[in-house]
Design goal:
Arc Repressor Mutant, subunit A; about 50% helix
């Protein structure tokens, strides 16, 4: 499982959020902030004329999501610029066949064009994605805690069985709800990197070329569409506990440290600690010290309050 979020996948999937209505409510704050930031930075044309056409909500060239991005944005963008023209020609051909590729897509074989794309990606990331990195990190930390406990209690089967509503583990096959055509992917002994993404909503996504090192990018937002998302307000619970405390309770469902709760709620560590004291005194969470950190988890009573008594436990 990825230890940090992949910046190029976050770029691509955040651009998908601009183009899709599904889950728009869950990103309402980001959507407003990002639009304003992009306009203030005079990046509207870069987004509409360069990036959105290159990252439609369907297939786009795999070289735009290189494995090097797991090291960081600079390494990923450098890998895009250095991609061989032969690979780009083949992927652009597939792009044109499967999606409404922009007319200028064949020019991606030109290094200068890729450098223009690289600069656009940097500017977009700094403006629209980086300001929400704390949310992304909190999502990933919570997901790692959830899957870590599943692995501890159930081994690999337990982990694979807890990947959310869009994936179903029936050994030895992981069935995935996929946004495009049906496909079978045979790993043949290769590993599969799981990449939780803050900007992924609904069905997971993977690379188009089955010969590449395989990743599965999926949403750590485990709420259903008829209930509030991880970082949106929950009116009934917020009215009872207050918005910040309700959000902190929601994040502890995946297990989280005080620092992770602070980042998720957008408050200081001291403020987050005060909220956890109140929730713990009410019997809604438990707190355990693990070395220098305190890990907070939800209790059955807290789960009943969060989800309703029929889903508690």
């Amino acid at each position: 499982m990825a230890t940090v979020s992949d910046p190029l996948w976050e770029i691509a999937l955040s651009l998908h959020r601009f183009q899709a209505s599904e889950g728009r409510w869950a990103y309402a704050s980001w959507f407003r902030d990002a639009q304003k930031r992009l306009i203030d930075k005079d990046l509207h044309r870069v987004v509409t004329e360069l990036l959105l056409p290159l990252f439609p909500g369907t297939y786009y060239p795999d070289f735009l999501n290189p494995a090097e991005a797991q090291v960081g944005l600079t390494a990923g963008i450098d890998a895009i610029v250095e991609t061989s023209p032969e690979r780009i020609r083949e992927e652009v051909r597939r792009f044109a066949a499967q999606a409404a590729a922009p007319a200028w897509a064949p020019r991606l074989v030109e290094r200068g064009m890729r450098e223009d794309v690289a600069e656009g990606l940097r500017q977009y990331y700094d403006t629209a994605v980086a300001p929400y990195n704390d949310y992304s990190r909190a999502c990933l930390d919570s997901e790692r805690a959830t899957l870590g406990r599943a692995m501890l209690h159930g081994g690999p089967d337990g982990l694979l069985a807890n990947l959310g509503p869009h994936m179903r583990w029936v050994p030895p096959v992981l069935h995935v709800t996929y946004p495009v055509e049906d496909r079978d992917l045979w790993l043949g002994g290769r590993g599969l990197l799981l990449v939780p993404s803050y900007f992924c909503w609904g069905a997971p996504v993977a690379q188009g070329d089955p010969t590449l090192p395989q990743v599965l990018v999926y949403s750590p937002h485990r709420e259903t569409l008829d209930s509030p998302g991880l970082f949106s307000s929950t009116a009934p619970l917020s009215a009872l506990l207050g918005r910040t405390r309700a959000l902190i309770l929601r994040v502890t469902a995946g297990g989280a440290t005080t620092g992770e709760l602070a980042r998720a709620a957008g408050v200081s560590d001291a403020a987050a600690s005060q909220h956890t004291v109140a929730l713990r005194n009410a019997g809604l969470i438990l707190s355990h010290r693990r070395g220098p950190r305190v890990v907070h988890t939800i209790t059955p009573l807290g789960s009943a309050l969060l989800h309703g008594p029929n889903q508690a436990g």
